[in-house]
Amino acid sequence: MKIAIIIPARYASTRLPGKPLALIAGKTMLSRVVELARSVAKQANKCEIEIAVATEDERIVKHASDIGARAVLTSNRCRTGTDRVLEAIESIGESHDYVINLQGDAPLTPPEFILSMIDEITSNPNLQVVTPVVQLSWDKLDDLHENKKATPFSGTTAIIDKYNDALWFSKNIIPAIRKEDDLRKTDKLSPIYMHVGIYGYSMQVLQEFANLPESYYEKLEGLEQLRLLENGYKIKVVKVDCQNKPLTSGVDSPEDIKRAEELLKKMGEQ
Description:
Elements: E1 2-8, E2 23-24, E3 27-28, H1 29-43, E4 48-55, H2 58-66, E5 71-73, H3 81-92, E6 98-101, H4 111-123, E7 129-137, H5 138-150, E8 157-160, E9 166-170, H6 180-186, E10 189-195, E11 199-202, H7 203-211, H8 216-221, H9 225-230, E12 235-240, H10 254-266
Parallel strand pairs: 1-4, 1-6, 4-5, 7-12
Antiparallel strand pairs: 2-3, 6-11, 7-10, 7-11, 8-9, 8-10
Helix pairs in contact: 1-4
């Protein structure tokens, strides 16, 4: 099986221009994500992994070359990272069974998350889409509630069925919990799953997805994956463990860079 890990890395970020080239503890954000992808490729022994950066800017192409990474220059027509991933994989022109969209602004993603996705893909090659979630502890759920007071659209939660297929995703915290105080006394973990925004697509589904019009609930929530659910696609969920590492989202601002550097120090990494 052949899998491509495509890293969409857009230079023209509104909140952090030149974001992929921003330094985090002395290394560029993009170099950290490329290192993450290479670590995954070394550990994934059931398939062949190809890594490429997808960008609209020559400066990022040059930096990718400097760190020994393949880069594909995509057009400015790409509305989303998914569109950029598809354009890049089609430009590469090689046959791949699956494509993993690894966001270029997620440098602290544990490699185990991606390896769990690859394990699911190799054990079930008929999968349409796969993505990871983390079941939150009560403390992490409290943190999420607190974060949403300031930034209500940060953090996405998911509801999954007994087959580990996604039923829904939302920027709200779902499901609502009746008798939460009682549940806290008996259950170590909360029933809330936090979505980690990494996706693995079969090539066919990726091509179909990019050609679908923006869907109703996608527009309301600002979540691309709802387009898939609204059109009847199955999204397989893999449950992953943070292994006592902080659960982080993307790095989108100078403040996020400071937080990322603090987390690296806590984890004893540079």
